[in-house]
Amino acid sequence: MTQVEKQMATTKDRIEEEALKEFGQKGYQGASLRQIVKRAGVTTGAFYKYYATKEDLFSGVIGIHADFVYQLYDKTMEDFSQQPLETQTETMMGTSEDSTGIMLDYVYDHYQAFKILINGAEGSPYSDFIHQLVVRETRSTIDYMNLLKSQGQGMQEVDEELIHMISSGVFTSFFEMVTHDMSREEAEKRFDILRNFYAAGYEYLFQVKFG
After folding, report:
1. pLDDT classification of 197: cutoffs 50, 70, 90
2. 177 and 191 Cβ atoms separated by less than 8 Å
3. What are the CA-CA distances from residue 98 to residues 19, 73, 164, 179, 199 (Å)?
4. 172: Cα separation from own chain's centroid
5. Please, where are the H alpha helices in 82-182?
6. What span, in angstroms and rounded, lies between the C-alpha atoms of 132 and 63?
7. Dihedral angle sign, alpha carbons of residues 162, 73, 127, 23
8. CA distance 177 to 175
9. How far apart are CA 91 and CA 18, in angstroms?
10. Dihedral angle, C-alpha 210, 186, 21, 27, nearest 10 °
11. Which of 63, 155, 179, 186 falls between 20 and 30 A from 5, CA-CA?
12. pLDDT in tens, 7-53
């Protein structure tokens, strides 16, 4: 890396560091680009070499972590959906444990960003972060339910709105660890219990037994 490249990287790092502070204190809507630039000790012109707008900056320092979670979930569900129904049922708990474990570790490795994402993203393109996960969870659960039905599996009376309500509970409770500033150890312990709680509920609804 050349000296110029090192200097540019340092400038970008300072901007992003101050952006995290500003977004953390004031949220997306209240954050001031002027203050971020001033505290980073750079000119407005220097800032625009890296980011075009406040929205672009928010996406670059906060949104990238939401995108990671989206991609993790989408890849997990894509791989899961390729399996036969019997295998899906057998591996349901293991898949859930693996993916939520990765997600939980990632959240705590980037805790400040997720604190902003959950509590300060209003007005940004990521204000519906949890809702987007709920939509994904609802869709994948409906797909599994329909696959069960296609194989003649009897189940409780279940409609998409109910699945959406349950999915909302899953992800709202998951991110309570951020809302309530739980330690990583507390979050891991409580989410193990929650995972088993929701699994038992789905077993009841779908009249199956997960492996």
Report:
1. very high
2. yes
3. 32, 11, 22, 23, 14
4. 11
5. 85-109, 111-119, 129-150, 160-174, 176-179
6. 13
7. positive
8. 5
9. 44
10. 60
11. 63
12. 555 889 999 999 999 999 999 999 999 999 999 999 999 999 999 99
In this predicted model, what pLDDT tens digit does every residue of 94-119 receive, in sequence order? Answer: 999 999 999 999 999 999 999 999 99
Over residues 170-191, the pLDDT tens digits come to 999 999 999 999 999 999 999 9
Take residue 87 and report the two structure tokens written for it: 């295998």
Question: For residue 118, which amino acid is it?
Answer: I
b/e map 49-78, b = 16+ CB within 10 Å? eebeebeebbbebbbebbeebeeebeebbe
User: For residues 23 and 58, is the Cβ–Cβ distance under 8 A?
Assistant: yes
Q: 78 with 161: CB under 8 angstroms? A: no
What backbone torsions phi and psi does residue 117 show, to the nearest 5 degrees?
-60, -40
Of 9, 21, 10, the residue nearest 62 (C-alpha) = 21
Retrieve residue 183's tokens: 């330690």
Contact 115, 28 (CB under 8 A): no
How far is it, in rounded angstroms, from Cα 155 to Cα 49? 57
Looking up tokens 């991110």, which residue turns up? 175
What tokens appear for 136 in the block?
């994904």
